[in-house]
Amino acid sequence: MSMQDTIKTKLTVALAPDVLDIINETHKHNVPADAESHFKVVAVSKAFEGKMLIARHRMINEALTEELAGSIHALSLHTMTPDEYVEKAGKISDSPDCLGGGIGS
Fold first, then answer.
1. Domains, the chain, ranges and CATH?
2. pLDDT averaged per 10 residues in sequence order, the chain, 105 residues
3. pLDDT attached to residue 101
């Protein structure tokens, strides 16, 4: 199973999300072609209601403890309640460009 599929499976179980989008952004970074190390997660769940942003991120980090201790290097999190998602019309900011990761700098 790919890392992207693993993340999706674990977060589906942990959050019962209304929307869950896992975007592999590894290709934007200076890593080997077969690496699966940089991801953006868009999670919309009722489980986030009444929780501050840090608590939402902790929920995701706890669900992905093994993966964060292993091959995941970066995880960009966009966590919203269903109402927040509707307010934003589903628009999520783009991830910043990679600055090179130290090779050649």
1. 3-87 (3.30.300.90)
2. 94 98 80 77 97 98 95 90 89 69 44
3. 53
pLDDT at 97: 65
Q: Are 30 and 65 in contact (CB under 8 A)?
A: no
Token pair listed for 7 = 């993340």
DSSP per-residue codes, 52-91: -HHHHHHHHHHHTHHHHHTT--EEEEEEE-HHHHHHTTT-
pTM (predicted TM-score): 0.84
DSSP assigned state of 48: G
Residue 60 amino acid letter: I
Q: Cα–chain-centroid distance for residue 69?
A: 15
